[in-house]
Amino acid sequence: MALIVQKYGGTSVGNPERIKNVARRVAEYRRRGDKVVVVVSAMSGVTDGLIKMAKEIMPLPSEREMDMLLATGEQTTIALTAIALHSLGVPAVSMTGAQAGIITDGVHTKAKIRNITPKKVHGFLDGGNVVIVAGFQGETPEGQITTLGRGGSDLTAIALAAALKADLCQIYTDVDGVYTADPRIVPTARKLPEVSYDEMLELASLGAKVMQSRSVEFAKKFGVVFEVRSSLNDNPGTIVKEETKNMEDVVIRGVALDKNQAKVTLVAVPDKPGVASRIFKALAEANINVDMIVQNISHGTGTPSTDLSFTVEKADLLKAEKVIASLKAEVGFSQSIATDKIGKLSIVGVGMRSHSGVAAKMFETLAREKVNIDMISTSEIKISVVIDLAKGEQAMRAVHTAFIG
Ligand code: ADP
Ligand code: ASP
Ligand code: MG
Fold first, then answer.
1. SS3 state of residue 302
2. Is the Cβ–Cβ distance between 262 and 311 less than 8 Å?
3. What is the pLDDT of residues 115-156, one digit of tens each?
4. Dist CA 69 CA 48 (whole Å)
5. What is the DSSP-derived secondary structure letter of residue 391?
6. How many CA atoms lie within 13 A of 84 on its CB side?
7. Looking at ligand 1, which residue's alpha carbon is closest to its atom 6?
8. 168 in helix, strand or coil?
9. Range 162-176 average pLDDT
């Protein structure tokens, strides 16, 4: 008898028929004698719809209230999934994140899990129930409802699998597994039978939204092996696990495009010690994650100044602009320019460590496509470029063809 954690994403629970389909799959595992914990997301489109409604009322709503609002999406699905299991004669109990013992810090809308005490989950499992836990949510030690960042149901599943010492963790979604690129954009993308935590982490944080990047980080830290597979068929999925020796034979494992980035440029920033630290400290204090930073060489005479560009998530752009505006007088730059018409295109592979010429090939491919490179950043196993959003998908296909086929 195994303990299995299964997570079903938004499309997989997108309507009552799909929820019944999930219930049938869960019932099948339970019939084999397995203990099953099911984590579900909000039905597809629900979280976006709730955000849209709040923003129609106010562009920058209180983050505490956003968490209160967004947590309702998953709460709807847990109850419907429990009802679907009952309709098949399977005992099932739904639980909110808080009821499942998921305790987080107090950073509303992107809270981190501090610990999980799944005592009640064990209790219900021991009583013969399937336990259905609301993804994406938790509570602070003071009892405030929090959410774990977009795509956070993946994290709920992986963290629960670790806390429950589950034998198996399955992430059910609307594609057959992790592909070399988003199959919706690159028709020639191939399914990967396995991928290392580090590659999956890079792909996820660089835009392959098939897994939330923080969930992969958590899986790596706690050694949770998981499978990404489809809720719509029985095809084998992709196993995400520790790197093995032969993985370095492949230079580029995948290509990702992040359309959710925005860029802020501060023009004529005084070029003197302490300025960058002041700017990025203020952004960090507002819990804004800054990704790439590029500083141009100072030009001109008089007080040296420089242009400073950085990228943030689109969702944080308004907040970042507000922080920057509040620093204008103190820091003394001439203006700030923001755009969300950028895409970040990345190639990822542990094989990059032992192969050279990878960057040159990527840049040549982009030049051939007449795609201008705005910013570049690299790590041991990835190269990212910021380009014009309008050319993002075309560039992604070209780079995929050049490296993978
Ligand atoms: P869920 O609602 O199940 O969490 P998501 O929409 O968050 O599903 O993630 C699944 C989607 O991720 C797929 O439909 C696919 O378009 C996209 N995706 C992006 N990159 C990849 C990739 N490399 N492999 C597979 N899917 C990808
Ligand atoms: N419902 C949340 C979102 O749309 C969490 C998730 O789907 O994983 O981001
Ligand atoms: Mg998701």
1. coil
2. yes
3. 999 999 999 999 999 999 999 999 999 999 999 999 999 999
4. 11
5. G
6. 23
7. 210
8. strand
9. 98
How many alpha carbons lie under 13 Å from residue 242 in its C-beta half-sphere? 6
In the three-class reduction of DSSP (H, G, I as helix; E, B as strand; rest coil), residue 331 is classed as: helix
Strand partners, 382: 348, 379
- C-alpha 318 – ligand 1 centre gap (Å): 26
Q: Which residues pair with 38 in a beta bridge?
A: 6, 132
Q: What's the fold here for domain 3-174?
A: Carbamate kinase (3.40.1160)
Q: How many residues does the chain have?
A: 405
- Of ligand 2's listed atoms, the one at least distance from the Cα of 136 is 5
Domain residue ranges in the chain: 3-174
Residue 127 CB neighbour total at 10 angstroms:
10
What integer pLDDT is reported at residue 130 of this predicted model? 98
Helix axes 63-87, 16-31, angle to 10 degrees: 60
Model pLDDT for residues 257-267, shown as the tens digit of each residue:
999 999 999 99
Mean pLDDT across 318-340 = 95
Ligand in nearest proximity to the CA of 157: 2
Distance 155 CA to ligand 3 centre (A): 10
The DSSP string of 11-79 is: GGGSSHHHHHHHHHHHHHHHHTT-EEEEEE-PPTTHHHHHHHHHHHH-SS--HHHHHHHHHHHHHHHHH
C-alpha closest to that of 201 among 160, 243, 173: 243
Whole-model pTM: value is: 0.92
The DSSP 8-state label assigned to residue 351 in this structure reads G
> From the CA of 152, how far away is ligand 2's center (Å)?
6
Buried-exposed string 239-265: b where 16+ CB fall within 10 A, e elsewhere: bbbebeeebbebbbbbbbbbbbbbbbb
At 272, the pLDDT band (50, 70, 90 cuts) reads: confident
Please state, in angstroms and rounded to a whole number, the distance separating the CA atoms of residues 3 and 130.
11
Which residues fall within 8 angstroms of residue 101, CB to CB, at 6 or more apart? 116, 117, 118, 119, 120, 121, 163
| Ligand 2 pocket, Cβ-based, cut-off 6 angstroms | 9-10, 41-42, 47, 73, 135-136, 150-154
